[in-house]
Amino acid sequence: MESVGTCDTTSVVEWLCDGARSAPEAAQVLAELCDRLLACGIPLWRVAVFVRTLHPNVLGRRFMWRAGAEVETLTAPFEIAETAEFRNDALTHVCRIGITLHRRLEDPDCPTDFPLLVDLKTEGVSDYLGTPLFFTDGSIHVATWATRRPGGFSDAQIAGLEAVLAPLARVAEVRALRREATNLLDTYVGHKTGERILHGRIRRGDTESVHAAIWLSDMRGFTMSADRLPLQVLIDLLNRYFDCQVPPILEAGGEVLKFMGDGLLAIFPIATETDAGSVCRRAFSAALDARQRISTMTAPAGYAGGNAVRFGLALHVGQVLYGNIGGGNRLDFTCIGPAVNLAARLEKLAGKLGRAIVASRDFGLHCPGGLLPIGEFQLAGFSSAQAVFGIQESDVGTR
């Protein structure tokens, strides 16, 4: 088609080159981009941007704009990559070949070689462009543009869209890298700790005192099982085991700080003294949930504990020193202090007593009826005997 007038998108290019700073969120970038392109005379009806990401569960995110509607955000799990629908999608095709896909759908002889094109043609789309977005690391992402304008996009309008692709790719890459950093920090150190790191709390010795409920758990018989089980079987067992604990902890407002082999350290921060009771009760509820989930696990052949997976969990509440420790440029966010030491001793005691859940007196008093005194015990490193609480004997379950 011949050009119809001019379509100057210089102002849009300048806005993108400046970082699209008026739109702090990714969905807002797409919404404002489309509004600005409409103002330049480009008759957009539907625009989609697909960006792959670095996340343990997510392949990428798709942002969809339609004229007169809010931007929709869709998260694509890794499993979708195995479906025929994804493999035969126009987005996937452009990602794979890195070349613009142009289909003028109103032309009678236009191929509708992707299912999406059939749907768009039914919706009255006259023209479709699938354009690659090249990131500086060599990866290819996609932006697609569709119009209902009779005659489709003009040559000048297509040139206007092509002019914004490079700066749009830079903005998309910067936003994607920022999100990937957040995703990775959430995955490996936890959300609250990740926020601290992103806000610059990264110097060694940068710590703070935090009042928190403490969760310290361990799988019984793991050391013996590690010598008996094939490595992949052992890893699968650990993953299933932690799947029984992490969701209840997060749902109760906890933060998983560390996996130590089969051990797990988590805290439930307490904002004010009046919140201590409710936080401890949420942590205790999460403990009961985790115990129930673990009780349904089937152990692999060769597991030292027989058919059932057993665990021990200690709960305590107190002040912990939370922050950066390490050597040189290799640091770790963790929590230390006497309260953590007491939780560690209680966890060992749970194993000796054959109990799944024990708690300190300070924690147990916040959970009347659920946790009851079971005696006083001498713990290594503590001069006086410590009062210990546990769940009612009839409720012990997994032991």
**Helix percentage range:** 25-40%
- CATH secondary-structure class of the largest domain: Alpha Beta
Structural Rg: 28 Å
Q: Bin the strand percentage.
A: 25-35%
- Counted beta strands: 14
- The appropriate CATH architecture of the largest domain is 2-Layer Sandwich
CATH evolutionary superfamily of the largest domain:
Nucleotide cyclase, GGDEF domain
- The number of helical elements comes to 13
Order of helices and strands: HHEEEHHEHEEHHEHHHEEHEEHEHEE
How far do the termini sit from each other?
Answer: 76 Å
Mean pLDDT across the residues is 90
Provide the structure class. alpha+beta
The total domain count is 2
Shape descriptor: elongated
* Largest sheet: number of strands, sense, barrel closure: 8 strands, mixed
What is the CATH third-level topology name of the largest domain? Answer: Alpha-Beta Plaits
Question: Which regions contain 5 or more consecutive residues with pLDDT less than 50?
Answer: 395-399
Features:
8-stranded mixed sheet; disordered C terminus; 2 domains; 6-stranded antiparallel sheet; Beta-Lactamase; elongated; single chain; Alpha-Beta Plaits; 13 helices; 14 strands; alpha+beta; 399 residues
Write a compact overview of the structure shown.
With 399 residues, this protein is α+β, with helices and mostly antiparallel strands.
